[in-house]
Amino acid sequence: NLNSNPEGKPRILLMGLRRSGKSSIQKVVFHKMSPNETLFLESTNKIVKDEISNSSFVQFQIWDFPGQVDFFDPNFDCEMIFGGCGALVFVIDAQDDYIDALMKLNLTVTRAYKVNPNIRFEVFIHKVDGLSDDHKIEAQRDIHQRANDELMEEGFDSVNLSFYLTSIYDHSIFEAFSKVVQKLIPQLPTLENLLNIFVSNSGIEKAFLFDVVSKIYIATDSSPVDMQSYELCCDMIDVVVDISCIYGTKEADGAAFDHQSLSLIKLNNSTILYLREVNRFLALVCILREDHFARQGLIDYNFVCFRNAIQEVFEVRMQVQQASNNPNPNV
Ligand code: GDP
Q1: Is the N or the C terminus of the chain less surrounded, counting Cβ atoms within 10 Å?
Q2: Which ranges of 203-253 would DSSP assign to H, the alpha helix?
Q3: Integer Cα distance of 110 and 261 in angstroms
Q4: Contact 41, 113 (CB under 8 A)
Q5: Is 165 within 8 Å of 141 (Cβ atoms)?
Q6: The complex's ipTM?
Q7: From the Swiss-Prot or TrEMBL record, what is one GO molecular function term (predicted)?
Q8: From ligand 1's centre to the CA of 323, what distance in Å?
Q9: Alpha-carbon dihedral angle through residues 309, 314, 319, 321, given to the nearest 10 degrees
Q10: Mean pLDDT over residues 135-139, rounded?
Q11: What's the CA-to-centroid distance between 241 and ligand 1, angstroms?
């Protein structure tokens, strides 16, 4: 399977020019660093492998490359680096002149595609917090067009790039990472289906299945996602984890989030935020109207069914993975 490394974990590569914001993204999304602290990060000058798998459901590595990677250097093992990679995230600093970055993007994509045509290419047009709305749209249009034109000219018509406007100063970076990660989860349609069933039978307006540590949502029901609801749910996770850290009784492994985690927040606009833990890494966060919560018994019952179904989905995945890790030579 070209999309996974030997341990069967999908791998995401994070690449881009020096100072484009790679280390900041990694620290903010996966290590809870506050955006202001990234001002003092030292620039990356080596490949950083970040194993997030111990604390997060999303099992992947981020390889932070220094901007000046030379693909023609014999020490640079393209086969090894791109071969086992599920998605390549290329970060472009939108506040800077991006001509160099586009050249680098082209070089990277064409090189990686030759080794592994299954890689998903995700371009983060980053640091857009400093840009006006018009400027953002213009930057995205321009980068999209130039990047695609160049690939077409070189005959890479079938390469598909996805573009995202991102900043570490708001939730856009989490939203973008959510989309990137979702593409690497083979069970996504099943998860969405289960969420749809749960939501429609429980009178819930919106439900997100979150990876608690990174606040990436790995699935949601099929009603449209509005940024405000997502932000509200992210904030709820922060509140719950912070309160549990301060006042909660600690599990043996010190985790603030455990199998009994449950929280209910009533907002002053007759809306309720409802969080339930699904497993060690995942939480379900729902938004619903207060009057629908009168039937909490029904919601709780549906939730238990939902949680059981999720467990089954991932048990099947583990069995499949184990089977592929121990192939029987006689079969
Ligand atoms: P790297 O060399 O690609 O790892 O880049 P760094 O992560 O070291 O970031 C370079 C600089 O960009 C740092 O001073 C960050 O604070 C800043 N930066 C990163 N992301 C953003 C962003 O979304 N908006 C703004 N305004 N600055 C950012």
Answers
A1: C
A2: 227-247
A3: 46
A4: no
A5: no
A6: 0.98
A7: GTP binding
A8: 42
A9: 160
A10: 94
A11: 26
Crossing angle between the packed helical segments 296-325 and 188-202, to the nearest 10 degrees? 170
Calpha distance 192→186 (Å, rounded):
12
Structure tokens at 286: 């729902």
Average pLDDT score, the chain: 85
What is the predicted pLDDT for the residue at 331?
35
Quick one: pLDDT at residue 45?
Answer: 63
Helix, strand, or coil (residue 123)? strand
Distance CA 230, CA 213 (A): 15
Residue 199 confidence (pLDDT) above 80: yes
Q: Whose CA is nearest to atom 16 of ligand 1?
A: 39
pLDDT band for position 105 (cuts 50, 70, 90): very high
- The confidence band for 214, taking pLDDT boundaries of 50, 70 and 90, is confident
- Reading the block at residue 107, the tokens are 């070089």
DSSP assignment, residue 4?
B
Q: Are strands 282-289 and 271-277 parallel, antiparallel or unpaired?
A: antiparallel
Q: Which of residues 135 and 243 earns the better pLDDT score?
A: 135
Per-residue tokens: 273: 């935020």
Which of 13, 14, 18, 19 most suits a substitution to test ligand 1, by most atoms within 8 Å of the C-beta? Answer: 19
Identify whether the C-beta of residue 287 lies closer than 8 Å to the C-beta of residue 271: yes
Reported as a single tens digit per residue, the pLDDT across 2-25 is 344 444 566 788 888 888 998 899
Taking each helix axis from N to C terminus, what angle separates 99-115 and 133-153, rounded to the nearest 10 degrees?
A: 50
Give me the residue label for tokens 């160099």.
100
Placement of tokens 């490359």 in the chain: 65
Burial letters for 139-149: b for 16+ Cβ neighbours within 10 Å, e otherwise? bbeebeebbbe
38 Cα nearest atom in ligand 1: 16
